Amino acid sequence: MRWHTRHASAALNVILALATAFTLYRVVSQPKTAKPREDRLTRPLLPGDTLALPGGEWKGASPHIVLFLSPSCHACNDSLPFYRALSAYVGARPGARLTVVSPESISSVKAWLLKSGVSPTQVLQNTKLPEYGVAVAPTLVLVNPDGIVTDTLSRSLETKDEAALWARVASHQGKPLNNTRYAPEIDEGTMRALVPSGTPVVVDIRDREQYARRHRAGALNIPADEIPSRAPRELSRSTPIVIDCPAERRSDCRIASELLLRDLGYRVVYVLVAGPDAIVRH
Questions:
Q1: Is the pLDDT assigned to residue 270 strictly greater than 80?
Q2: Which residues lie closer than 8 Å to 108 by C-beta, 6 or more apart?
């Protein structure tokens, strides 16, 4: 009886060892699917980046125009005549594609575009566009057949930008276009390292009520809609500017940084992406 018991126990141990080894093999060998970057320190979508957008079909398309739009976006609605012209061009050119991506439902976006005379090749819904480097609507990118971004343009375009884009769309002539000017995103450690190069001014862009309830010690409150009028009077262009950015306002922080860099002439701007533990009650 003891002999049988010992051998049964040994056989059970062997079975358990084999089962454990097989489970580990399955975990290690299981193919990994591509995912967008989920780290908190990201940057905008730039020429040379791969647009790993679910549902995007790049192969064989030339040119492939991708529009990131929203029916509630004022600049998107103001730019509809230009998008209508792009749509007509794509419809008349074999192999060309126009993809519209929006956080809104596909049906509502299609109805909005149809009413405006814009006929895209494809409409995609994506509610996590900042993970792909798109923080501002409208954003227009040109993508080559390998899914590589060649040109990036955000917000409403001036006449000269539209002319340059037509040249790129028609024959890829001229330099790649890129008018993004978002500030680099930093963490607490990087912010502390900035102090030796000149104490930065920390700006809180939330409204006054949110600021009064809870904010970082020493932060200056300039609500986002007041930046154009107050920044030139209250912020020195010779001092690094740090926008204190709560997670739920990330897109607003990027827009504010673009406003400071591109429109107001500030040269050193950062966006501090920090957790709630970094904001202290005042």
A1: yes
A2: 71
